[in-house]
Specification:
Layout lengths: L14 E8 L5 E9 L5 H4 L4 H11 L1 E4 L2 E4 L2 E5 L1 H6 L10 E5 L7 H12 L3 E4 L18 E5 L8 H9 L4 E5 L4 H10 L3 E2 L17 H13 L6 H8 L3 H11 L13 H8 L1 H13 L7 H20 L5 H10 L2 H5 L3 H7 L4 H9 L2 H14 L12 H24 L1
Helix pairs in contact: 7-8, 7-11, 8-10, 10-11, 11-13, 12-13, 12-17, 12-18, 13-16, 13-17, 16-17
């Protein structure tokens, strides 16, 4: 567990992940918390737990905003039993949305309770709305957001359902949007907000090839992995893209490295920092989104890569940097819109790492698969031999690390 000695953060007794909520332009405006705790009533645990509340506000709600970080509201799932048997803790009302689950018993007492919460200034969302279930009708005059599960509606039925809901002045959130085609269809229908994994599965263009700066970066990485590589041979490749060279040097000279003197060439940087540090920053530049791509994709790539690396360190696996690389590359197909099978044919990558990506083989593939499960909140299927609180700390650290790196990259 030596890796976590450098992460000065409080362990929580609940596993948490977050799922972004997007606008029509794919900007992140909130996060739904996915969690598994001892009691099943996570919100109740916040009442006397200032540490957990600070973690949520300072880490889980953080989202990059140009060269800074802003806070986005967190959606907290609650049901009728919780609302009627527990007091809502004093939460900053601008930072949280209470999400009423669709399996709640909608009684007169519950309606009175929700009405009181709205009066106190809480924002309320309703999940799992079913237009054929009359019990939801009374809640529609109280809630602010209604979630529609895209797996339960046909595109033909949605316009009628949405017209009916618009009469209540609510925002409409399309949930479980799994592909770019579905996202675009929901855009055309007029949804306000979107959740799902569509960002990790956009349309892939067969026959497209890696080109431009990304190709130069892959060539540099190949050379960095060459046992006979020298600082000069790496620099020669980098100079094929002068703008890239300038950006790399700007980052290396930033406060992140606290160097005593300015680095004037990549060969100079390698002599000071070593091949591994340069390799890491080349990989980070590889994750930077192309123009027109949502920033969230870069952030997600960085976060997954770092969590793979930290988890490998905690488990004392060999080559933690390779785990970082596999985590980063696991979403490069999405970034470049090239199917993974074709991308692996195009990039000069060790066979061991290719099988980790394609088949979840070896330590790199095992950790990648478990990190993906954690990201989706599928905690029951995680098989890594590690105490769960450490995984939450690793996930939380990865969020903060990705934000810091992304801010540094954006400054360039």
């Amino acid at each position: 567990m030596d890796a976590l000695n450098q992460i000065d953060q409080q362990q929580l007794q609940v596993l948490m992940a977050r799922q972004p909520i997007f606008t029509r332009s794919k900007d992140v405006v909130g996060f739904e918390l996915l969690f598994r705790g001892e009691t099943g009533y996570f919100v109740a645990d916040l009442k006397d737990d200032e540490v957990t509340l600070n973690v949520l506000l300072n880490t889980y709600s953080s989202v990059p905003d140009k060269q800074s970080v802003r806070q986005a509201p967190l959606f907290l799932k609650v049901n009728d039993t919780f609302l009627l048997e527990h007091e809502i803790p004093e939460l900053p009302k601008d930072n949280f949305v209470l999400e009423i689950m669709g399996d709640s018993v909608i009684s007169a007492k519950l309606l009175e309770r929700v009405d009181g919460l709205v009066g106190e200034g809480y924002k309320i969302a309703l999940a799992d709305y079913d237009p054929l279930d009359p019990r939801f009708e009374a809640l529609l005059n109280l809630v602010h957001i209604v979630k529609l599960d895209m797996r339960k509606f046909s595109l033909e039925d949605l316009p009628r359902v949405m017209r009916s809901l618009r009469r209540y002045g609510v925002e409409l959130l399309a949930d479980k949007v799994e592909t770019l085609d579905e996202f675009q269809a929901c855009q055309k229908l007029g949804f306000d907000l979107f959740m799902g994994y569509f960002l990790s599965k956009p349309q892939l263009v067969k026959g497209r090839r890696v080109k431009g700066t990304k190709l130069v970066l892959m060539q540099i990485l190949t050379e960095l992995n060459n046992p006979e590589a020298t600082a000069q041979s790496v620099e020669e490749l980098t100079l094929r893209d002068p703008e890239l060279t300038y950006k790399i040097l700007r980052v290396i000279n930033s406060a992140a490295f606290s160097l005593r003197r300015e680095v004037t060439s990549l060969a100079h940087a390698i002599s000071l920092l070593g091949m591994d540090q340069i390799r890491r920053w080349v990989m980070l530049f590889l994750s930077v989104a192309e123009e027109g791509k949502p920033q969230e994709l870069t952030r997600a790539m960085l976060q997954r890569a770092r969590m793979c690396e930290v988890t490998a360190e905690m488990l004392q696996r060999d080559e933690p940097m390779n785990h970082f690389f596999v985590g980063l590359l696991s979403q490069l197909d999405v970034m470049l819109e090239i199917p993974m099978s074709e991308l692996l044919d195009q990039i000069p990558l060790d066979h061991h790492l290719k099988t980790a990506l394609a088949e979840h083989a070896s330590s790199e593939g095992e950790i990648l698969q478990n990190v993906e499960l954690y990201e989706r909140g599928d905690f029951n299927h995680i098989t890594l031999p590690i105490d769960r609180p450490y995984l939450e700390v690793a996930y939380r650290h990865s969020i903060s690390w990705a934000l810091q790196v992304l801010t540094t990259l954006q400054e360039e």
